[in-house]
Please model this.
Amino acid sequence: MILSELHHEHRERVASYPVLTRDGNYYPRVGFDDLNAHVVAYYWGVVAKARKGGSDAVLRSMNRVEIRDIDGNRYRLLTDIDAINKFFREMAEEEDIEQFRRVY
Model:
């Protein structure tokens, strides 16, 4: 499902968010229209809850969601909580976690 195809009128840039794709790529700042920005913000909220010990059921349910940035690039978000935790552990070891916190 490509959300922006459902709502072509939502094409103005409103926000930039970091993106962590399911193939492990990390993009620190990606610009999104309002619809996709909402989905990415929701995703990061779900990630935060799952990382604090909450259920990862909602996170896993997002495994088929595809988002599109303002340039038309498509992304599938990482929904495996173990892989997400590994990403943050490695980021903390590299001291990039502060940059992530400044962006998001």
Q: What stands out?
A: The chain is about 45% helix and 20% strand. The longest strand covers residues 13-20.
